[in-house]
C-alpha cells in the first residue's frame, strides 16, 4: 500500500489541511468590512454612492484589537480607506460607485438626523447629530450632537452624512 516515505510526506500535509479551517477563523471576516463600509457610506453594495463590489473573500487580514478606522481616500469620494489601527495593522481601499448629483433640492434639511464624521489622516470617528441648516452636497452647514451641545460647521458629503475635516 503506502511506503514509510509516502506516509512521512503525506502526514504533515494532512495536518495542514485539517488545520486550515481553524486558522481561517483567525482572520477578519470580509463581511464585517462590507458592513463597516456600508455604514460609513450609508448605502449598500452596488448602489450609487456605496461600494462597487463586496470585499474579496480571499483576503486573509489579521484581526484588529480596535474598531476599523474608515475615511475617504480623496475629496472625490471614489474609494473608502478601511484601516486596522493596530501598530502593525493593515489598510485596504474599497472602490465606491459614482453618485449622480440631483438638483431636486437640499441633500440635508434643517432638523434632519445626520451622521457627523470627524475625519483626518488615517482615521474617522462618527456620531449622530442634527442639522441646524439645510444645504446641498458640498455646502457647509451648522450641526450639533445634542440639544445642549454647541453647534459646529460641517460639510455635507451626501444626504444624512456631514464631515468635519481634522488636520
UniProtKB/TrEMBL annotation:
The keyword Protein biosynthesis does not apply. The lineage of its organism: Bacteria, Pseudomonadati, Pseudomonadota, Alphaproteobacteria, Sphingomonadales. The keyword Magnesium does not apply. Keywords: Signal. This is Flagella basal body P-ring formation protein FlgA SAF domain-containing protein. Residues 1-24 form the signal peptide. It comes from the Bacteria. Residues 104-163 form the Flagella basal body P-ring formation protein FlgA SAF domain.
